[in-house]
Design brief:
The chain is α+β, with helices and mostly antiparallel strands. It has a single domain, classed as Alpha-Beta Plaits (2-Layer Sandwich). The radius of gyration is 18 Å and the shape is globular.
Length: 105
C-alpha cells in the first residue's frame, strides 16, 4: 500500500499546471491579497451590525484574511472568495449571503 501511495505522489509531482488555459491556479499559498480573487465569488457576505456581538469569529476563521477588525468586521471584496465560512461560524446569524453581481461600485 505504501508503495502505490508514494508512486502516485511521484507521478503527481511530474504534472505541470502552468499556463493551462481555463484552469485557475494559485502558485503561492496565501497570496490572495496580491491576486484580487474576489472575481471568483458567487455569493458575498452582508453584515447586520445591529445583531453583531463583536465575537470576532468571522475575522478569526476567514481563510483568505478578507476581514479586518476595526471595532467591527470590515470586509474586503477584492480578496473574499465567497466561501461563506464567516456566515457559518457566526453565533448570532449576523451575516447573510447574497448573490454577488460583481457590479462596479
Amino acid at each position: 500500500m505504501k508503495r502505490s501511495w508514494k508512486r502516485g505522489m511521484l507521478e503527481e509531482r511530474k504534472l505541470r499546471y502552468d499556463r493551462v488555459k481555463g484552469i485557475p491556479h494559485v502558485r503561492e499559498p496565501g497570496n490572495s491579497k496580491r491576486r484580487f480573487t474576489g472575481a471568483w465569488r458567487a455569493f458575498m457576505p452582508v453584515w447586520d451590525y445591529s445583531k453583531c456581538i463583536k465575537c470576532r469569529r468571522c475575522w478569526l476563521h476567514c481563510p483568505e484574511n478578507a476581514i479586518k477588525w476595526k471595532g467591527k468586521p470590515v470586509w474586503n471584496p477584492q480578496v473574499c472568495k465567497g466561501c461563506m465560512i464567516c456566515m457559518e461560524v457566526c453565533p448570532v446569524s449576523a451575516i447573510t449571503k447574497v448573490r454577488d453581481r460583481h457590479d462596479k461600485k
